[in-house]
Specification:
The protein contains eleven helices and 16 strands. The protein is an alpha+beta fold and 376 residues long. It has three domains: 48 residues, no CATH class; 199 residues, no CATH class; 81 residues, no CATH class. The strands form four sheets. Strands 5, 6, 7, 10, 13, 14, 15 and 16 form an eight-stranded mixed beta sheet that branches. α6 packs antiparallel against α7 and α8 crosses α9. It is extended and about 80 Å long.
C-alpha cells in the first residue's frame, strides 16, 4: 500500500475511512486503524467473497440501503459471465408484502426512532426464493434516472382571511390591526359576501356566484387573490426499467425465460390458502373468522421487490437507492426488433423486459446523504 496523503479516503466493507494528520485511518463508524491494520483489512477484503457482507450488516435492524442477502448459486443472471464482483449491475430480491400496521411490522422497528417506526414494514422485508430463484442480476438498464416529486399548491386568501391566519395561527396581531383600519374595504367585501350568498339562493341563479362575480359585474373590481404557494405533500417515487436480452446459447435462453417468469409471478396476486390469515387476527380457533378469511373470499397481495444498484459487491455510491417497491407493471416483448425469430429450441432470439416500480415508502430529507455513502 502506497504512503497515504492526509485527507485520502478509502472504502472497506462499506465503511469509508479517512487518513488524518495523526497517521491513522478514521472510519465513519467510529473505528480507528493504524496503517498496518488498514493494509491487513484491505487484504482481507480483497480476498473475501466478491458478494459477501459483514455479520454486522446482516444484523443491523435499521432499513438497509443495500441488498439484504448476497447473491448465491440459486441467483439467476444475464448475461452469463459478464456480471461479477468488478462490474456495475442491478440485484433484485423478492419478499412477502408486510402490511404496514401488522404485528410483524410493529415489531421490526421496536426501540427505533419515529422514522424507523414509519419504515417498519420496509425494515421487516425478508427476501425469499421464488421457485428456487433467490435473486436476479441484470446489467444497468437503459435510460436510468431518478425523480423525486413534491406537491405544492397555490392558495388564495382575502385580506381579512390573511390577517386572521396571521393573528391566530402565528400569534401576530399587527396585520389584523392594520387590516381593521380599512373599514371601507372590509365593508365592501362583507356586503359582497352577503349579496352573493343571498343571490345564490334565488332559483335560476345556479348557486355558483362568488364575491368576485358580484363585485366584478357591478363595480368592475374583484377580490385581490393574495396568492401564496403552500406545500402539500411528497409523492412516492416511481421508476421504470427496460432490459433488451439476447441469448447467445440455450443456457442464456433458459435464464432469460426464468427471469421473465419470476417477475411475472412476483407481480401477481396469489389465489388460495398460502398461509393462515385467521391467525393474524388472534382468533385462529373461531369458525366465523376461518369462514370469512377462507381462500375463496380473499387473494394474497403480490410480493415486493428490493433492487439495489451495485458496483462490484458494494451498493453504487453515486446512484440513489430505493426502498422495497411494488411491481406495478411487467411487459415482455418477444419481438423487440419487429420480427419474430427463434432458435431451433423455439426460444426467442431477443426479449425486451419492461418493469414498473412504485416505492413502498416515502423518502425524507434525513435519509438522503450528501456524502459518498449509500443513500436513498
Amino acid at each position: 500500500m502506497a504512503t497515504p496523503t492526509i485527507g485520502q479516503k478509502t472504502n472497506i466493507n462499506r465503511t469509508v475511512y479517512e487518513y488524518r494528520s495523526d497517521g491513522r485511518w478514521h472510519g465513519t463508524n467510529g473505528s480507528v486503524k493504524t496503517r498496518a491494520e488498514m493494509e491487513e483489512a484491505q487484504r482481507s477484503s480483497s480476498s473475501s467473497s466478491q458478494f459477501s457482507f459483514t455479520e454486522e450488516e446482516q444484523k443491523d435492524p435499521k432499513l438497509k440501503v443495500g441488498p439484504y442477502k448476497a447473491p448465491d448459486k440459486s441467483s439467476v443472471r444475464w448475461p452469463s459471465g459478464m456480471i461479477d464482483g468488478s462490474t456495475d449491475y442491478i440485484y433484485f430480491e423478492f419478499g412477502k408484502y408486510v402490511p404496514p400496521f401488522s404485528r410483524d411490522a410493529s415489531g421490526a422497528a421496536s426501540g427505533g426512532t419515529n422514522l424507523d417506526q414509519y419504515n417498519a414494514s420496509a425494515i421487516a422485508f425478508k427476501p425469499e426464493a421464488i421457485n428456487g430463484v433467490s435473486g436476479i442480476l441484470l446489467p444497468m438498464p437503459q435510460d436510468l434516472s431518478n425523480e423525486s416529486r413534491q406537491e405544492w399548491q397555490g392558495k388564495s386568501f382575502s385580506r381579512i382571511g390573511k390577517a386572521a391566519i396571521a393573528a391566530f395561527g402565528a400569534a401576530n396581531l399587527e396585520p389584523g390591526a392594520k387590516t381593521a383600519v380599512d373599514i371601507v374595504g372590509n365593508l365592501e367585501a362583507m356586503v359582497g359576501a352577503i349579496t352573493s350568498a343571498g343571490l345564490n339562493k334565488i332559483p335560476g341563479v345556479g348557486g355558483n356566484l362568488s364575491i368576485s362575480d358580484i363585485t366584478g359585474a357591478t363595480r368592475g373590481v374583484v377580490l385581490n387573490p393574495n396568492a401564496e404557494v403552500l406545500y402539500d405533500s411528497p409523492n412516492l417515487r416511481e421508476i421504470g426499467m427496460t432490459f433488451k436480452m439476447v441469448a447467445k446459447n440455450k443456457s442464456e435462453s433458459d435464464a432469460i425465460h426464468k427471469i421473465c417468469q419470476v417477475f411475472r409471478r412476483a407481480s401477481s396476486p396469489t389465489f388460495g390458502k398460502v398461509d393462515d390469515p385467521a391467525a393474524k387476527f388472534g382468533d385462529a380457533d373461531s369458525t366465523k373468522v376461518q369462514e370469512v378469511f377462507s381462500s375463496d373470499n380473499f387473494i394474497h397481495v403480490p410480493k415486493l421487490c428490493k433492487f439495489t444498484f451495485m458496483s462490484g459487491k458494494e451498493p453504487n455510491r453515486y446512484i440513489p437507492q430505493y426502498k422495497p417497491c411494488a411491481i406495478t407493471r411487467v411487459q415482455v416483448n418477444y419481438t423487440p426488433d419487429g420480427t419474430y425469430a427463434t432458435y431451433d429450441s423455439n426460444a426467442p432470439v431477443a426479449v425486451e423486459l419492461s418493469i414498473g416500480f412504485l416505492e413502498s415508502k416515502l423518502v425524507y430529507s434525513s435519509e438522503i446523504s450528501t456524502g459518498l455513502g449509500g443513500t436513498f
